[in-house]
Amino acid sequence: MKEGDFMISVESFFNQKESYESIQALEDCEVYSASYNDVQNLYNKFPEYNFVGRVLTEKYYVLSEQRLYSLRM
What we know:
Helices cover 55% and strands 0% of the residues. The chain is an all-alpha fold.
C-alpha cells in the first residue's frame, strides 16, 4: 500500500477472527487504528459515516482486484 492508504485484514476484521495475515511498515509511519466496535459505534451514532465506510470498502475492493489481476498475469 502507498502513503495515505487504508489497510485492513478484511476477513479478520469483519468476521472478528484471528488473521492469517500481518501488516508490516517498511518505513517510519504514523498509524491510526479503530476496532470493529469503534466502527460499528460510528455507523450507529453517525449515519453519514456509512457513506464513508462504503467508499473505503469500494476503494479497498478495487485495489484487491488489481492485485489479484497482477498476480494472474
